[in-house]
Design brief:
Blueprint (H helix, E strand, L loop, with lengths): L1 E5 L5 E6 L8 H23 L6 E5 L2 E2 L3 E4 L6 E4 L10 E5 H11 L9 E6 L3 E7 L2 E2 L30 H5 L1 H11 L8 H9 L3 H25 L3 E5 L7 H14 L8 E3 L6 H13 L11 H6 L4
Parallel strand pairs: 3-7, 8-11, 11-12
Antiparallel strand pairs: 1-2, 4-5, 5-6, 8-9, 9-10
């Protein structure tokens, strides 16, 4: 996990990481988060003479602003925000990818774009549906789970139990798994290795990468027809492939949208800091400052002003 202190003017004055202890169970994770939050509160108090005005936390799974409802990765159920923070400081929870989408909306590639999809392609795939500048969580806090939208009904079984999910074909972990399954004598340490082999003309890698792009195009075409976004912002580790991913995906998506123009595909601007910066925005919202961040400098946010 990562955390920091972010001033009302957007200055990142502390930014560090801590282990979650996930292997020891959900109670350990909750305790680790609480201990780190307490540490940051103490740091803020000593540095500024008062505790932070608000606290924002971005966590995985099904999430509302007040409860971490469920996370398969961590194993917790119905953890209230009060378990993570000391009493007396306003706090707000957010889904990790939706919170990243909030940051991209206010500060990054989606700045000035009212309606867009933030698609994070990493070990898994998740999305943030941004409508009117705000991430849409849905009725129960699970909105945006585009990674588990089926793209091939008769396809491979996903770890979630469904068949043919987008994540099963197009996530970074899927590229490695599917490549190694078809090339038993070869291994690929990362999705970047598979992409590099595909670019170099290696047949199996090219096939696996092509199927990933096709799955993404199918899923995004459905999303575009349903919600008519002004743009699609793509982040996560696989987005680092740059034009190697974007160009064929643009072509495939355009081919599927036969009677309308394709919305632009934009690279995410905030990188690995999106979640932390989005959590900072949630913290300021909890403190009663809803419009904070609109004038923050992207250059400052990228490099931070961390002593």
């Amino acid at each position: 996990m990562k955390g920091g202190l972010v001033t009302r003017g957007g200055e990142v004055t502390a930014l560090e990481g801590r282990p979650t202890g996930r292997e020891s169970g959900p109670e350990t994770v909750v305790a680790a988060i609480r201990a780190y939050v307490d540490e940051l509160v103490d740091l803020g108090s000593s540095r500024y003479g008062a505790p932070p005005d608000g606290i924002g936390l971005a966590v995985p799974g099904i999430v509302t602003t007040s409860t971490a409802v469920y996370s398969a990765n961590i194993g917790w159920y119905d953890v209230p925000v009060s378990a993570f923070v000391p009493p007396g400081i306003p706090a707000r929870l957010g889904h990790d990818v939706r919170t990243g989408g909030l940051a991209e909306s206010v500060l990054g590639a989606g700045r000035g774009v009212a309606d867009f999809l933030f698609l994070a392609i990493g070990t898994g795939i998740a999305g943030a549906v941004v409508i009117g500048g705000e991430p849409y969580g849905g009725a129960e806090g699970s909105g945006g789970e585009i990674g588990h939208a089926p793209v091939w009904p008769a396809g491979e079984k996903c770890a979630c139990g469904q068949i043919g999910c987008l994540e099963t074909y197009a996530s970074a972990s899927a590229l490695v798994r599917r490549y190694e399954a078809r090339s038993p004598s070869r291994t690929a340490a990362t999705a970047k290795d598979v992409v590099s082999l595909a670019v170099a003309g290696e047949a199996v890698a090219g096939e696996v990468f092509d199927e990933a792009v096709e799955a993404l195009a199918i899923s995004l075409a459905s999303y575009v027809m349903l919600l008519d976004p002004a743009a699609i912002v793509i982040g996560g580790g696989l987005a680092e492939a740059g034009q190697t991913l974007f160009l064929p995906l643009e072509e495939r998506l355009s081919a599927r949208l036969t009677f309308r123009e394709r919305p632009p595909l934009l690279p995410a601007a905030l990188g690995m800091r999106a979640g932390m910066l989005g959590a900072a925005l949630l913290g300021w919202q909890a403190a009663g400052v809803p419009d904070v961040g609109r004038d923050w400098s992207l250059d400052v946010l990228r490099r931070g002003a961390v002593p």
